[in-house]
């Protein structure tokens, strides 16, 4: 019945129609064909079709109404969105009286802070056979509606939280604060309701034709967007993607055929095969990817750390995206859960990114300190940068191309605007992403917004030779001075910056922003300066591992116990400190400044001790768990999974046809889906793009014979114990 109510209240409306997208981009960059939406509009045809539907075809009218708005499920739980019936609307096609009547799906937003009155449509339109409902409310505010005031307040907090998450993840957000807040009404809260209308009509024209010149009801609404079948035009980037992926497919077929013929049919030695001809072979690349050969000096435990950290990232994004790109039946329940103690394992997930920063710094030192000298570092600096850039480029470029083209076409749904926005941003801002400057050049409209991490990682890698110059000097004292100078400078600069700016200390919080509060996302979260200290902590840990490489380190049991206790206390403090700052009444800027300045470096030190203890025999069952072979494949796929998983979550959520009911059990099941699909797609991209390109890069640039499909970071097992070092 509610959809009829919506038809009435929208009926004789003063309408404001927004553009379909908030980004202003050229038509050939849009994911949807905006010209199509304008070309189909025909006021004369609209009037004729509506007149016919109302007076001559009750069944067709029922189809339009059934596919249109209904009471938002979970209204008292904070859900103000109804998605209608997307496919049912677009499937309406009927030819009558020389008219082709087709359905068009539109989303309408109706602000709640306004008044309206009812009219009797049956009498005014002379449609006595249609039963129209009476309006249940006369004014949408907290004093007169049947919704409790606490629900209104919860809605405001939820909208605020959603806007903050959207900002962090590079999605268009809205300012939900208003000067009307104290009036008891709902500032900028609105119903978002799907309506199904004839193809030649706009929403405004539809209801003008329904009511003629009636003007008793005054209600503002906004036509947010409309959708039609086949409204995703083929653009240049689609053809480029099709050609490139077709060429890759042909190369894979030919290379695999050559490889199988050489080894299986002719039974020749694999070493005699041409490496270039085999570079795209699925047969060889799969075998290389799933085969692990232990090597001396390998850091075994880091595969487990990387895999677990990756799963933590994905499950965090799964939960967060349910608040951003999906329609939730009970958002207020989700809000209450996020503010609770039991959500800490999700709300602290952003700290795991600092695990990757720490490991990146560790590996740069650990893998170069033994084989580099100052002169060799300076002489080969261009190759140092080029090799890093090219090793990251294939998967990143493939992901950008997928998002700019195929991901937009693979499926569809009423929530597809989030995917479309990412497509627009990749078509416009693809080049800052491939140059690793998008965290500064286009921070609010990033293509692949989660790859801000990759930008910072590459920028820190670019700066790392300044420290490596001292590390590879051959003198330990010089190396230690350079390493600690780098850490102290980065930590001091970040601390001073944090105290001056006064950022909040949590990426997700339900408290209201203060007036003049700096932007946390662009100012802190994706800022290289503020995220650099864990990287320099990792460089120090990497040097410690280097100087004790192949040596048996003996540490007294009491010291090992104290170090483990300290690690547990500090890491727990980092995690549990998030609980008070999540609360709406949190207001301690000094504590925020200290947390922003030191909690991430503290976490990096804890992970550093974990790695060191596992490498040198003090990890016990933790080392056993982290060194299991099952982590190897995840460790090798972690880079591709990180790059691809976020966009795949958008695609999955974009296909949802109805609101989801938030609870932890459902979200965990959804994580399993997101993780599995990400794993499969990452496996395919690694086999078809990453592994072949790594072979080609090594062939043309030279270097070791080791394939990139082997662990991205060396595994470390202590095979050589000829030296023993006592640690006091």
UniProtKB/TrEMBL annotation:
Residues 43-228 form the Nose resistant-to-fluoxetine protein N-terminal domain. Residues 1-19 form the signal peptide. It comes from Galleria mellonella (Greater wax moth). InterPro entries: Acyl_transf_3_dom, Nose-resist-to-fluoxetine_N, O2_lipid_transport_reg. Pfam families: Acyl_transf_3 (PF01757), NRF (PF20146). The chain crosses the membrane at residues 239-258, 309-329, 341-368, 389-407, 452-472, 479-503, 523-548, 560-582, 602-627, 639-662, 677-701. This is Nose resistant to fluoxetine protein 6-like. PANTHER family: O-ACYLTRANSFERASE, O-ACYLTRANSFERASE LIKE PROTEIN. The keyword Transcription regulation does not apply. Keywords: Membrane, Signal, Transmembrane, Transmembrane helix. The keyword Iron does not apply.
